[in-house]
Amino acid sequence: MENAKILLVDDEKAIVQLIEMVLRKEGFRHIYTANNGKEALELIKRHTIDIILLDVMLPDQTGFDLCPQIRKASDAHIIFLTARTSDLDVLTGFATGGDDYVTKPFNPLEIAARVKAKRGNARHTG
Questions:
Q1: How many domains does the chain have?
Q2: What is the pTM of this model?
Q3: What span, in angstroms and rounded, lies between the C-alpha atoms of 49 and 36?
Q4: pLDDT tens digits for 58-98?
Q5: Cα(32)–Cα(35) distance, rounded to whole angstroms?
Q6: Residue-range definition of the domain harbouring residue 9
Q7: For the Response regulatory domain, which residue ranges apply (predicted)?
């Protein structure tokens, strides 16, 4: 069983369900989900999160705007998951505090592999 606490932040329910299903099949049990930035920040304040999978296009704010707010409350490893593929978007993701950047469409097994690779290097060891 994987002990890493993972937060999925995406307003596309099908993507959240798919990633959550794959992560659970890979042994992860502590998975939280949020559909917008406000929910994500509330969960981060209540739980010690190790890895955050963060969409850029959220209904209440962008993931780029949310990332620095997350950094004030958490040292979690942040992986952007987004359809925004320009070099500027990728650089913005890193500049705002992201640790990794994956573009949609993506292979859910690749996401699971990245989470597994990061869990040992996560800034929190919760």
A1: 1
A2: 0.91
A3: 16
A4: 999 999 999 999 999 999 999 999 999 999 999 999 999 99
A5: 10
A6: 2-119
A7: 5-119
